[in-house]
Amino acid sequence: MQDSLSLPEAKFLTGWSHGKEALKNGSFDSFKGSFYVNCDFVKSCDHRKASKDAYSQHPELTATNVWPPEEMLPGFRQCFEELCTLIIDTTILVARQCDRYASAKIEDYEPGYLEQVVRLSTTTKARLLHYFPTKADDRQYQTAPKENMITAAEKNQDDWCTTHIDHGCLTGLTSAVYIDESTHPPTSSISGQLSAPPPPLPILPSAPDPESGLYIRSRTGAATKVDIPTDCLGFQTGEALQLITGGKFQAVPHFVHAGGRPTDGKQIARNTLAVFTQPGLDQIVDRSTDKTFAQFSSEVAGRFK
């Protein structure tokens, strides 16, 4: 099933991806799995086709989505698209406030630019993330005292997700969902057909390890842990917005830390959804060089070769 949902021709950035993302030390990330979806379903068929035809050299942003068969995961696609649409609609409101600030602080800033980007883009990307439980030998700092939490996390950033910045404009994030897979182990496949969605898994009220979770870095490099309430969305800025605003908005470096304290045999997995709102491929992101988002995306891809 996983192979049928993977698209190597889209650089594994549409559909299922696991162990394909290169880390800064040259290894490949096997600690999380991703299911990518191009959010152009909010646009008309003609709009999607025009973008795909014009930028066929960017299949990672224009590929047709792949979905699990409805009979195997009833309601998955509908729920996924509805949640992404909600996040995009909310991002429009955030973008509107960013535009107000940018118009006041940046000379010749086009009023409403960022809101237009979020509304009209055909390259917005969603990433459903599953962080696999880490093993004891993955945790080299199991007994780090509370006061050394940030230091311990910084030394082991690759345990769930290494420090990086997003290369879009605004990223919308759901709160993290933690599940104990020792009591509810995942199955490698679903046999037969389902007439209704499978029952929800029991969700832990929080991560058992308080060190576990999302961290961001300030402009001074200080790391801060971020907890998004279950009934809220979080938003962070990306590199394209940094270019568009000449650095008035800065891309936020961030990483995800698995934590290291003993969990009494528990196998804690983390799940979340990120939606990266991005400019259209033909939109200018750097006015000083007339660089388009397509050109910028190619540069970003080159960093990871």
Q: Please count the helical segments.
A: 7
What general form does the structure show? Answer: globular
Largest sheet: 7 strands, antiparallel
Radius of gyration: 20 Å
What helical percentage do the residues reach? Answer: 10-25%
Query: Pairing-aware structural class of the strands and helices?
Result: alpha+beta
User: Segments where pLDDT lies below 50 for 5+ residues?
Assistant: 139-150
The assembly state of the depicted protein chains is single chain
Strand content: 15-25%
Distance between the ends:
28 Å
Mean pLDDT: 84
Order of helices and strands: EEHHHHEHEEEEEEHEEEEH
Number of strands: 13
Describe this structure in words.
- The strands form 3 sheets. Strands 1, 2, 3, 5, 6, 9 and 11 form a 7-stranded antiparallel sheet that branches. Strands 4-10-7-8 form a 4-stranded antiparallel sheet, with helices on one face. It has a two-stranded antiparallel ribbon with strand order 12-13.
- It is globular and about 55 Å long.
- Strand 7 (213-217) and strand 8 (223-226) form a beta hairpin.
- It has 7 helices and 13 strands.
- It has helices at 45-54, 59-62, 76-105, 113-120, 149-155, 239-244, 293-303, and strands at 15-18, 32-38, 125-131, 161-164, 170-174, 177-180, 213-217, 223-226, 233-237, 254-257, 268-277, 284-286, 291-292.
- The chain is an alpha+beta fold.
